[in-house]
Amino acid sequence: MSGGDRRPPLRWGLTVPFPGVPLGDHPRLYRQAEALGYDDLWSGETPNGSDGFTPLAIAAPVTERMRLVTGIVNPFTRGLGVLAQTAAALQEASGGRFVLGLGASSDVTVQRFNGLAFERPLSKVREAVAALRPVLSVPPERGYGGLRLERPVSQPVPIVVAALRGRMLALAAEVADGAFTNFLPLSGLPQVATALREGERAAGRERTPTELACRFFILPVAEEQGMVFARSMFAAYGSVPVYARFFRWLGWGEQIAPMVEAYQSGDRGRAAELAPENLIREIFIFGSPEEVRARVQEFVEGGITTVALTPIAEPDLLPQLLEALAR
Asked: pTM for this one?
């Protein structure tokens, strides 16, 4: 990204909830993370995991400084009124530290697991941001259907839009306070950052550069030890249509095609075997804390302004790993 002096301050965060740790045991890890200097907690709402709000609601009373961000929730499976209510409640509970991370999610989550039509995702996100902004602003205005909250926010709720490809990145630059990307290969970073900055220019927002957040999957083991897990995880995500289109957009279409075909035919094991290792090495980060920091720094130099680390380790190793990965 050009114009380093225009770049938002670097933020160093964590994805929550932590795998394998009961939600009731999270407060001690949240306190530790804040004491270690982490800036953010980004919730990871997955189709078969925790929802995006509960881990942050647990964090609100046990932290004082960290920003609490949904990464992400979507306007298909939650109505606009419910999103506004929940965002305002978390903003109040956290003393103004909440950020609403909003995105289209995927056809798997929306259609297969929730029985809803996954249609016009770009328009759906645009309409959601437009409807939520007035309600979550100061002074508040009426939103969709005349909604006015009984407990309005005392501070505006920032909105980050989850964006993978060009049009959604342009939308984030136009209407949001930040963009959030996921499963980003290092070689694809210039294309993503350029699309975001071009969107800013088109929207006349160059003076207020958009935050660009990225989630990083950390496997604190040697590559040969972590590759089996990484292959399986990548095959599951990379074969979802929205992610497959993302990788094709970045020029990896030919490499992922056999994996996607195997996964969609139901042969998950074969799909993992066919997952391209060169692409996995660009996305997953293996090795020691020093190796992790060095790799993440390459992304920061390429334009990432907010780092959301996702450490994948046994629960009893997490406290030591959080300390080792602290900025």
From this structure: 0.95
Q: Residue 111 carries which DSSP code?
A: I
Interatomic CA distance for residues 79 and 188, integer angstroms: 33
Taking the alpha carbons at both ends of the chain, their separation in whole angstroms is 22
Count each helix (H run) and each strand (E run) in the chain, helices first.
Answer: 14, 9
Please compute Rg for the chain using Cα positions: 19
Intervals of CATH 3.20.20.30 along the chain? 4-220+288-325
Rounded to the nearest 10°, the torsion over CA 51, 52, 54, 55 is: 110
Residues whose CB is less than 8 angstroms from the CB of residue 256 and which lie 6 or more positions away in sequence, other chains included: 238, 239, 244, 247, 248, 275, 276, 279
Assess contact for 295 and 226: CB atoms under 8 A: no
How far, in Å, CA of 266 to CA of 270, rounded? 9
Given a contact cutoff of 8 angstroms between Cβ atoms, the answer to whether 209 and 7 are in contact is: yes
Q: Give the Cα separation of 47 and 83 in Å (integer).
A: 18
Read off the amino acid at residue 30.
Answer: Y
Please name the fold of domain 4-220+288-325.
TIM Barrel (3.20.20)
Residues lower than pLDDT 70 in the chain: 1-5
Residue 56: which of 26, 81, 79, 80 has the closest Cα?
A: 26
**Pair of tokens at residue 133:** 């902004």
Q: Each residue of 26-57: pLDDT tens digit?
A: 999 999 999 999 999 999 888 778 999 999 99
The span from the CA of 40 to the CA of 114, in Å, is 29
